[in-house]
Amino acid sequence: MVQGSSTPERELLKLIEAERKGFSKRGEKKKRLRFSFLGALKGRWAFFKEAFSTNRKVVIREISLINRVLMGVVILLGFYVVVSNTFSFLSLPQKVERTLQIKPKSFKASSLREPSILKEASYYLDKVKKRNIFAMVVEKPKIKETEKKELLREVEEKTKNLKLVGIAWSDNPDAMIEDTKVKKTYFVKQGDIINGVRIERIFRDKVVLTYKGEKIELK
């Protein structure tokens, strides 16, 4: 059998070898794609990781800077409060001294004069105006103590049986007064007389009687 002749077995063998070579090439290509995809994923992960770490450092740096600024502001405010309170405390005694200062009164020479026994002229003029100097002053006779007691006893005797029953109030009011001794009620006005006793004034809640200059109230 000649070596260069082509037989069906050789042809079949060539086809099998060609298919194996194709499968091997496809496997290598798949492996390459797989490795390239994994490499890309690893590269992207490394990139994001680096970016995140960089941004985190920046954020931490900014936060620490803000904290320092706030701390500085707090320290300045505390210093201002301490200084302000210190100055207020130091100026307090001066304010108290100023408020406690009393200005001495300036005494005039006229205020050092001796007090006069006589009063001012206006006082005497006022007295003259109130009194009629041309009218004769008549002094009322003084009643003796025994006569006073006798008059009070007489007034009591005259009025002990009089009782105020009611008052009809108006511009010209009426009063109802009962004489309990004789069981009689009188309707009286101002100026009327009952048993020698004069009705002097009628008020809303009382009646004023007079007898020989003495006043008695009925309520």
Overview of this protein structure:
With 219 residues, the chain is α+β, with helices and mostly antiparallel strands. The protein has two domains: 94 residues; 74 residues, SH3 type barrels (Roll). It has a four-stranded antiparallel beta sheet with strand order 4-5-6-7. The longest helix is centred in the N-terminal third of the chain and has 93 residues. About 3% of the residues have low confidence.
What is the straight-line distance between the termini? Answer: 174 Å
- Count up the domains: 2
Oligomeric description of these chains:
single chain
Strand content: 15-25%
The total of helices stands at: 3
Topology as a string of helices (H) and strands (E) = HHHEEEEEEE
How many strands?
7
Please mark out the parts with pLDDT under 50 across 5 or more consecutive residues, or reply none.
106-112
> What's the story with the biggest beta sheet?
4 strands, antiparallel
Tell me the strand order in the biggest sheet: 4-5-6-7
Specify the structural class: alpha+beta
Helix content: 40-55%
Whole-angstrom Rg: 66 Å
Query: How would you describe the shape?
Result: elongated
**What is the overall pLDDT average?**
73
